[in-house]
Amino acid sequence: MFNDIAQYFRTDTLPHIWCPGCGIGTITAAIVRAIKTLQLDQNKVIFVSGIGCSSRMPGYLDFNTIHTTHGRALPFATGIKAARPELDVFVIMGDGDSTAIGGNHLIHASRRNIDLTAIVINNSIYGMTGGQTSPLTPHDKRGTTSPFGNLERPFQVLELAKAAGATYGARATAFHNQLLTKLVIDAYNNPGFSLVEAISQCPVSYGRRNKFKTPADMLLWQKEHAYKAGQRIGHEDDFQIGEIFSSQAPEYTKEYDKLRQRLKEVSR
Asked: Which residues belong to any copy of the Thiamine pyrophosphate enzyme TPP-binding domain (predicted)?
């Protein structure tokens, strides 16, 4: 199955560093298959990431890639898109990276509605730094900083982005990887800021602390708790997959170009 997308990878960097059973590899393949389906020019695709397990993804991909500082993937991506709006910019972030130290940048990238395709890989934990709870760790779940259960409610990251001004939001899981590919395609085709939440399993830092015996158990949990619009919710842990919202609003780089043109006319 890998051979159909091998051309998009730096194969000399493989094998990857992700733990056995981690869902990030599956999600990586789903994203790359979206790019293949879209037939994008590899030389015009840019992947930007922050710090964390998921942010190692661009190091394996044969595109223009930049591995930035913690929480700062969106400011770097915004600068790239503003300077070179013809480029196709994908932003890869983890749940902690995007909603804790990077939360303010997520709000303002959404507010600007700049044409970026952002993917938050949500494994409900800080996996790389020791299993601390993140802003997306579910209530009452355990991490190294919440050994008796997380007291805080998690962000609803798509609702946050929608309220801030993003014009497309969707969710899928590592289990629903074919759906994830479709949603990344739809996100790319949206002329504005798009956010896709990709729910992943972290069997080492999250699963073993929360009574999941195997990575397969975590994938089955994703299957059993996901529902599509119109289906009945059966449990408080259930979550909707598919397109969550879509709207239209002026896109930042196009509005900026209009401003430049007006200023040129005034200065003549």
From this structure: 51-197
